[in-house]
């Protein structure tokens, strides 16, 4: 019988060719997605098709598809007659920039890329393959969510994926590119992965759509405001990267992969010869001489230190008071965490703490050493922060740094005040090598606050309180707001000239390459969530 239920015509060719013909027909049907009209609609919506995406992402001639011929087993709502092509998802393994990966690409032209059980099990199969082979998983998501016709089977299918996301977490890198809608509980698979990419204008992620929001809360919004790339990269922090187009998205994924190892048992590959490891920087000297109250973008410092002045920033638009991303130092992949004085004076707040913690966790899981650049006046004060849980949520960054056992090199550039000094990979929480610039101020609090508390009575009695306050502040700066107290106690290994930062940190990481750190035998810690 053929798909329409009619008896199949006898193939007059040789039996061998008849087999081939059948294979070719089955392939063509499954590869055809939702058919020319729906594929054209996909293009008209400004999106590429599931297979075009894979063609662009993976190396030429490297894609091995699996489960092309898998079909849904569901029969309700006429699904047994519909035979959704490849059940709406293309899965397999391939190479990306020469590196083996497992991939899946949801096909919106087939029932809106909705996820039924077979669709889910195809994704699960390549996730299992990725774990077995120790290779990253890249998911290209474009789906209307749980396939309504398959009911609880599709919910179960999602749960199977979520479970695998968690099992694979910290074992192989997982990357999600949201290239269309991603609604309801479906958002939790990307959310459980390490990095989420979105494309400006065409990607949307939300738990409930605008209509439900309106009905439930009375708020009016469109898809873009609710869950577009800008919303998730700037406000919610769900998306780590925004791309201007799908082409740009795949280029960025390749760039990201280059900094990562294949799995947690490996280290990232090195790219040698890009820059002189002894290169010094006059720009850093100039930055170190800036007035302590002047803002600057910490990106400048990062670029001066990095090979080829190249910095691949992660979570660029979110919590910009902390900057995280990857550089190469003498060819080795290194994760950078840096306070950014250009935004909120570089103070730590809830979002910055969570952003930093997530990045530190990732680097530690995948053997990527951490360079921490400190210029932090403290935690951002205010009711909003306290009521929002800065105590609980701010503790995440502290927890992540304390737990991280990868080589950790810290440079205090300027301010390192209060608890934030401790948090930012200080010696006390096992920073391995800690440097400070000569202009660094390491103290419990800034001069103004300290003088007001320490000399309250004296200032009250002074004939010219303002003059006396200034004198006392100068004394305080001289005695405490410097790196020398910390250096005296060995909490700073060396006070370095700013210009020498690159050679110094490269030498430190080279020394730390063989670092082995044991953890206490326990099931797992209890990070404050
Ligand atoms: C079955 C679906 C579907 C779904 C879309 N389609 N979503 N079929 N199950 N979840 C089908 C449509 O019926 C349509 O088929 C085709 O896909 C294209 O959909 P359109 O609506 O025409 O496309 P568009 O206008 O671009 O809108 C896309 C959309 C919208 C925004 C995604 O389809 C939509 O709102 N879908 C439902 C989203 C949602 O609420 N999903 C469930 C979330 S709950 P025809 O044949 O008519 O062209 C969830 C739970 C997961 O996912 C839980 C995990 C724990």
Q: Can you characterise this structure?
A:
This protein is α/β, with parallel strands linked by helices and 529 residues long. The chain folds into two domains: 236 residues, 2-enoyl-CoA Hydratase, Chain A, domain 1 (Alpha-Beta Complex), CATH 3.90.226; 194 residues, Alpha-Beta Complex (2-enoyl-CoA Hydratase, Chain A, domain 1), CATH 3.90.226.10. Helices cover 41% and strands 17% of the residues. It is built from 22 helices and 16 strands. The strands form two sheets. Strands 1, 2, 3, 4, 5, 6, 7 and 8 form an eight-stranded mixed β-sheet that branches. Strand 3, helix 5 and strand 4 form a beta-alpha-beta unit. Helix 14 runs parallel beside helix 16 and helix 18 crosses helix 20. The chain is elongated, with a radius of gyration of 27 Å. The protein starts with 14 loop residues before the first helix and ends in a 17-residue tail after the last helix. It binds hexanoyl-coenzyme A.
- What is the total domain count? 2
Name the bound molecules: hexanoyl-coenzyme A
Give the tally of β-strands: 16
What's the CATH class of the largest domain, please?
A: Alpha Beta
Structural class designation: alpha/beta
Question: How many helix segments?
Answer: 22
The portion of residues assigned to helices is 40-55%
Q: CATH superfamily assignment of the largest domain?
A: 2-enoyl-CoA Hydratase, Chain A, domain 1
Unreliable stretches: none
> CATH architecture of the largest domain, please?
Alpha-Beta Complex
Rg calc: 27 Å
- Strand-residue proportion: 15-25%
Cα end-to-end separation: 57 Å
* Biggest sheet record: 8 strands, mixed
Q: Globular, elongated, flat, extended or rod-shaped: what is the shape?
A: elongated
CATH topology of the largest domain: 2-enoyl-CoA Hydratase, Chain A, domain 1
Give the overall pLDDT as a whole number: 94
